[in-house]
Amino acid sequence: MSWLTEPDEEWDTDPDAYRKEPKSRLKVVALVLAGWLVVSALVLIGLLAFGGRHGSTSAIRAPEQGRQSSSASPSPSRTASLPSGWVQRASDDKTDCAAHSYGRVQTFFTKTPCSSVHRRLATTNPHGRTVVVATSVVTFDTAAQAATYRSLVTSDGTGNVSDLLREGVGYPGAPAELPAAAFASRQSGNRVLVAEAGYATGTSDADDSTLKAVATQGVDAP
Q1: Where is the composition biased (Low complexity) (predicted)?
Q2: Is the pLDDT score of 222 beyond 80?
C-alpha cells in the first residue's frame, strides 16, 4: 500500500531541525548574558565614580579638622574676649566645681553643684610691670544660686575656685603661686565672674589701684 511505502509530506520533517532549535535558544541566552554584563559594568563604573568623589571630599576636610584641634591647644595666645594688652597663658573648662575649689566655697559646691566653670590665666603689663590675672566664670542652674555663691565668695576667708597656678598649671616665667592680689566679682544672670590680680614679681597689695583696675577688667571681659 502506498501509505506504507511512500512517506507522507506531513511527517516528512527536516532531519536537522532538532539541532537548529537548541542553537536558537543558545543565541537568546547569550544575548541576555551580554546585556546583563553591560548593565553590571555601568553600575560598577557609577559606584566607583561616586566613591571617588566622596573620598576626595574627606581628604579636603581633614586639614580643617587638624586646624581646629591645634587652635584648642594650651599654648599662649591672644584671645578676642580678653581686654586689650592681655595675653592668655592657660585656660580650662570643668563641670565639678567642688573638686576644683577650697574652703567654705568647696562645701557650698558639694551641696549646690555648678553647671560649669571656666578658668583662665593671663598676663598684662600696665606701666611696664607684669601682672598675673586669674579668672573664673561659674555657671549655675538659676540666678538665685549664683547670687548665693557670689555673696559667699566675696566674704573674707571663705575660699574660692582654685586658680590654675594653685593646681600646678603654669607657663614659662610664671610665679609658683598667685600673689596676694586685688579681687573683683560680678554677677550676670546665672553666672558669677571672679578675678584676682597680682604682680608677677615683688610685693602686691590688694588695695593697689593698678591691680584693682586689672581685676575689674577681668570681670568686665565677656
Answers
A1: 69-84
A2: no
